[in-house]
Amino acid sequence: MGLRGPKAVEVNRLQNDATAWAAFFYTLRDGQSGYMQRVKWEKIRNTGSAKWTRFQAGIGGIVLPANTSYRTSKALGPAIHIPVSEAARMLPAKMNAKGWHVSRPVMPEPEIWSLLKQARSKREIRKLSSRIRQWMNKEFGVVGRWLPGDPPLEFADALELYGEQLIISKRLPSYARTNRPTSDDKRIVFCSKVLAGARFGLAPITAVKRLSHWNYPKDWAEKPLRELVELSNKQFAERGLMKNQYKEM
Q1: Torsion angle (degrees, nearest 10) of CA 216, 166, 170, 22
Q2: Are the C-beta atoms of 154 and 147 separated by less than 8 Å?
Q3: What DSSP string describes 54-110?
């Protein structure tokens, strides 16, 4: 009796990784809007010895490592949208204002994404991974830089680790090569499928086939943020707490 082949990978695990990659690539290319909101801060706490602790935060969630200080807050006013813009680029990386929660926009690095699409060697991928790490250090800190799973893996490390599969995948006929407006979104989805599969030992063509019905929209962050701002404004308007200083920026 011959050796058994590799264990089948659950599609939902592939989708989780592909979703994380797509969010990462869209953010790298387009950035993410931020928001600010008047709040009452709670006491500073610590995650303790737990390896990873997950929290609801803003329009999504965050995962913090062990022995990390954090604090929660209660909203006192509606959320204010801060779009990605040249003006936002001038904002400091860390913003502190008494009585306010400020989530600074994540500024994009579209040049890195363009070079990543052009990369034809592992050496080029390594250089771009280093630039991505620098970008993430500036824009993310310790939050938002990890692929899900156990053990978690940093995006920059994963890109360097699976760069060869990404290079090979560009030869497949399903890789978008036109300059149509939607083609670049298709390239992000395609690369996300390939890198998700690479983590589980799948060849690029196999990963693309396994995830043939999976997609991820480019407004994955903007849409829920708009909904957060709209819902927040509605809630505080009903309570009669809307004031001029809460106009959208």
Answers
A1: 10
A2: yes
A3: EEEETTEEEEEETT-EE--EEE-S--EEE-SSHHHHTS-SS--BTTEEEEPPBPP-H
Tens digit of pLDDT for each residue in 123-166?
A: 999 999 999 999 999 888 766 788 887 778 899 999 999 999 99
Centre a 10 Å sphere on the Cβ of residue 10 and count the other Cβ atoms it contains: 11
CA–CA distance, 127 with 130 (Å, rounded to integer): 5
- Sorted by where each begins, the domain ranges of the chain are 16-31+108-210, 34-105+225-243
Contacts of 162 (CB under 8 A, 6+ apart): 195, 198, 199
Number of neighbouring beta carbons within 10 Å of residue 3: 4
Helix and strand totals (H; E) in the chain: 9, 10
Judging by DSSP bridges, how do beta strands 52-57 and 60-65 pair with one another?
antiparallel
Give the DSSP letter string of 119-175: --SHHHHHHHHHHHHHHHHHHTTTSS-EESSSS-EEHHHHHHHTHHHHHHHTTSTTS
Q: Give the H/E segment covering residue 37.
A: strand 34-41
Q: What is the DSSP letter of 179?
A: -
